[in-house]
Amino acid sequence: MSELLTLESIPALQAEVRALAKERDAVILAHNYQLPEIQDVADYVGDSLGLSQMAAKSEASVIAFCGVHFMAETASVLCPDKKVLIPDVDAGCSLADSITPGELRDWQAKYPGAQTVMYVNTTAEIKALTDYCVTSSNAVAVVEHIYREHGQDTEILFGPDMFLGAYVEKTIGRPLHVWDGECHVHAGIRPSDIEDVRAANPGADFLIHPECGCSTSVMEYVAAGDVDASGVHMLSTGGMLQYAEDHKGDGSTVIMATEVGMMYPLQQAAPDVNFIAANEKASCRYMKMITLPKLRDCLRDLSGEVKVAPAIAEKARIPIERMVSINA
Fold it and tell me: How far apart, in whole angstroms, are the C-alpha atoms of residue 133 and residue 323?
């Protein structure tokens, strides 16, 4: 159902969504990259880790997940007795699509005995073949945990995001086996974007998501002394929000390198801080597929259910629960 939204129609539609959520005993979860009008109507807005935790602890019988498909799958795995809905079942993820179960099995066969670590941005089928899931906020902590638990000579297969993998390698100071996958949006934020925005805003802090194509270059700038290490913050979207809370009131200028939807919650958290997108075109079309009319329709009709097969869910739950418990 296509429906034209106007500034005048949004409040009434949001009220309708809230009423339907109450009627359906539903909790609305929204990722930080969602449209502002979706974030405003959600019960909880957060990053992948926070959304997983909220899904697991929610007492609602229905979860309306405003994000992309793998996120709704994760909620279904953690909450098998709840009805998990996504307003648009076609809201996919280029990063999740960058590795298939067959490819992962072939990779694992080359390194018998290795521990498999997969970013949460993967399908439930991939998670079912995985030892540990990670988010950008706890990837380093999980890898360090594996070395402590399984031995310093343990081989680790890390995927599917090569930029996050490179960030973890540089942070811990040792190599991993890293899959050659990427998020097309984050990969599109290049070192040249950082150079240009840095030149235009000297002295500004950087908030950089480790998935970004510029992340390893910025770490190299820091190592070479070209960028002041004190002003560079490699953060998950949840970490970026905490940064905004901590700097509320200081009127600073801050460069943000991640999907542009993050600008809205940052500006809400710290209205006086001048947040600048490193690349204003870094927008995820899949995240933007979730709209208020679609959310209203899925709550009204209980449509767009995401259900993971029990056999896959049972295996996928193990690495997800490890991810939730090993939180930096």
Answer: 5
- The whole-angstrom separation of Cα 273 and Cα 249 is 7
Q: Any residues with CB less than 8 A from the CB of 81 and at least 6 apart, and which?
A: none
Residue with tokens 């539609």: 13
Encode 273-307: b = buried (16+ Cβ within 10 Å), e = exposed.
Answer: bebebbbeebebebbbbbbbbbbbbbbeeeebebe
Distance of CA 15 to the CA centre of its chain: 27
User: How far is it, in rounded angstroms, from Cα 253 to Cα 265?
Assistant: 16
Nearest partner of 46 among 163, 143, 136, judged by Cα: 136
Gap between the Cα atoms of 216 and 20, Å rounded = 45
**pTM for the complete prediction?**
0.85
d(CA 38, CA 295): 8
Strand ranges in the chain using DSSP code E only, listed in sequence order: 26-31, 44-46, 62-66, 83-85, 115-119, 132-134, 156-159, 177-178, 205-208, 232-234, 253-257, 274-277
Output the CA torsion sign for 111, 181, 209, 278: positive
Largest Cα separation within the chain, whole Å, is 61
Residue among 48, 12, 45, 16 at smallest CA distance from 264: 45
Q: Which residues are paired to 83 by β-bridges? A: 62
Q: What is the C-alpha to C-alpha distance for residues 69 and 64, in angstroms, rounded to an integer?
A: 12
Tell me the per-residue pLDDT of 42-91, one tens digit each, with 9 for 90 and over.
Answer: 999 988 778 878 988 999 999 999 999 999 999 999 999 999 999 999 99
